[in-house]
Write a structure and sequence with these properties.
The protein is mainly beta. It is built from 1 helix and 5 strands. The N and C termini lie close together (about 10 Å).
Length: about 80
């Protein structure tokens, strides 16, 4: 199982507030997709898209009922 630095960003929907919530943790993860899906179990209108960068970083762009979130996984 690999260990990743996970940066989870939740983008603010308020038009006058451009800040976003950012959470950073180090987590051992066997399956990145399963990790993202498990974080959003039971949420309606859950969709995601995976982006693989040349440096090995993996980004999941998540939409849950119009709330945009991003998970960035960097192997440690």
């Amino acid at each position: 199982m690999k260990e990743y630095e996970v940066v989870h960003e939740i983008f603010n929907q308020c038009s006058n507030n451009q800040m976003r919530d950012v959470f950073i943790e180090e987590v051992p993860i066997a399956d990145l997709e399963a990790y993202v899906v498990s974080r959003h179990q039971g949420e309606r209108d859950f969709t995601y898209e995976r982006e693989d960068l040349a440096d090995g970083t993996v980004i999941y762009h998540v939409n849950t009922s119009g709330l945009l979130q991003r998970y960035t996984f960097t192997e440690i």
